[in-house]
Design a protein that fits this description.
Length: about 130
């Protein structure tokens, strides 16, 4: 595992850049691409930074370490999956409510001939629009 120097810029969240100032770090990470997010060691603790480039110059000072690549794709996949689950739950809930209403009407119509006549008349009028 070869130690390399990289250049990064800090971010305050995953979409808004905090600064354009560039910082240098040591790393053993390979196959980083511009825009990748990495966890870096700072004097104030760990932080997330955006990878800019590998640095080859010998005179570039870098003392702290970038030690992990952030897997943002997994986060997005997880959030997308949660959204699909919630959408399906809502569709199921709406379908159950609609079917429950129909079943209740059918049961009540069996108990009340007057209600059955009203429902039949409604269905007859609605079918004229089809």
């Amino acid at each position: 595992m070869k130690t390399k120097k990289i250049q990064v810029r800090f971010i305050n969240n995953l979409t808004n850049w905090n600064t354009t100032k560039k910082y240098n770090f040591l790393t053993f990470l390979e196959d980083l691409h511009e825009g990748d997010l990495v966890v870096v060691e700072t004097r104030n603790g760990h932080a997330i930074a955006e990878f800019i480039t590998y640095v080859d110059e010998m005179d570039v000072k870098a003392e702290r370490i970038a030690f992990s690549k952030v897997d943002v794709k997994s986060l997005h996949d997880y959030v997308d999956r949660l959204a699909k689950i919630n959408l399906l739950k809502n569709k199921i809930k709406m379908e159950v409510e609609e079917l429950t209403g129909k079943i209740q009407l059918e049961i009540l119509a069996e108990m009340s001939p007057k209600l059955k006549t009203l429902i039949d008349t409604l269905h007859s009028l609605e079918s004229e629009f089809d």
